[in-house]
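Invent a record, attention on tokens:
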Amino acid sequence: MTDSKLNIDRTALEQLVNKRFFYAPSYGIYENVAGLFDLGPTGNALQQNLIALWRQHFVIEEDMLEVDCSVMTPAQVLKTSGHVDKFADWMCKDTKTGDILRADHLVEGVLEARLEGDALARQMAGIAIGSAVAVESASGDDAKKDSKKKKKKGGPAVAAKLDDAVADEYRNVLAQIDNYDGAGLAELIIKYDVRNPDSGNDVSSPVEFNLMFESNIGPTGQLKGYLRPETAQGQFVNFSRLLEFNNQKMPFASAMVGRSFRNEISPRSGLLRVREFTMAEVEHYVDPLKKQHPRFSEVADTTLPLLPASVQLEGKSQPIAMSIGDAVEKKIIDNETLGYFLGRIHSYLMAVGIKPELLRFRQHLQNEMAHYACDCWDAEIKTSYGWIECVGCADRSAYDLTVHSNYTGEKLCVRETLPEPLVYEKLICEPNSRVFGPKLKKAAKPVQNYLQTLSESGLSAVKAALDKDGKAVVSLRNTTADGQYEITPDMVCIENKTITEHVREYTPNVIEPSFGMGRILYSLIEHSFNVRADDEQRAVLSFRPVVAPFKCLVLPLSGHPSFAKPLLAVARQLRSMGVPARIDDAASA
């Protein structure tokens, strides 16, 4: 194992997990489909306890408004949110077998395997110089040939020493692997001769693949829908109802636990990359001008292992220990509310039993940032598969509420009465209804909404074009009248006016902690696993009582039948008090 992976006996762990039925492939007695899993009694109890603690930690303690929204989502909702166009990963295909591979994982796996082979070769050379063991000395080009022998994600490590410069180059690429787009991944595949590790064959150039499951709503097949890829959109479209329920008070948060679906290109690694999974998401609505948090002082002194984008771009992957307060002050973490939730995420993961030395918070690089986010941090947990993103915490700005409002015409905003009137100069666009409507017809309303919601700089650009060229072209997207429209000076009047506001109207920003419960569950299983020193055949999972699937095991003093009734009576009494208890009267107990 490399330093990026947790060194455990995964074979022994998998045997224990299977024996105790934590989880298993769905429909296993048939030819099972990859990426679908069933939780057994033990795994389900563990997940329910993780969710119960999550509800206590976030929903109850933070006084959040929990909802439960529809799984099936009309296509237009996800078209408006940007998921139809942008919710995609890069995939490539084995040119001979047709196997589909996720491009970034392929490159990552192959380079990691080569680095493991380099470490193995250096270790062997240091221990047994001159022995009969052959250690291949390879330059970057020579080492590429080893990929033909590799299996699984990047193939087994083959002892092959790399030049120091090549090894450093590989590490630099891996430190920012999430920052590469399709063209960048294609360049890496060619440069490092990355092949399918299962076959040794060449792979095609990466192409985009949308990750959503498409379906039809109703018998006609005319209304397209998708299984939701996240729970967030159902919360956003209910914002006005939630604000009213909260008596128009800001800030506040909604929350939801539910199933989400993503059509993963190449699901693998057990519960870590699946096609159906449980998410727990918070949408915290905050004034964009007031991103301070009233409870920030409670987390300001908490030290987190941070891996900022700037460090990753230097080719480094070692986290920096820094207090949340210092990180916010230095603008490494953008604002107090984002920092507060990073602190709350940390305390939740510590409470369930994640080992602190196996946790880091990594900032997204620009190319991997979701289309809706202006900043995002992942809580990554170290497992035997490497560092795994288990919680994302994004500042989604006002993106979602804005696009849904623009498309539907429904105001998803907050109206705040000001203590004193606010007087200021503002560039205003006023349509000439006699000309505007007849020229644009059905597009008049969407174009008017577009012009009146443009930023000051955007409206200034339109005015400059009208003054210089006598026309301006505006482009509409995600509206009922998408396309390009020509505006002329006789259609609009754009000028500075004095505005007096007694009520401030604004669209909230959203801070979103998003938890993948299955990934947390699996990571916790690995962190709780150990083998007894005095008996390597006895593997043990040591969970904290708050999340343990069973709180109490009732055992007889002997196998005599007279113990049957007392055992049952004790177990029933424990269960009646809310303590999950199991009876084990097997001879081996």
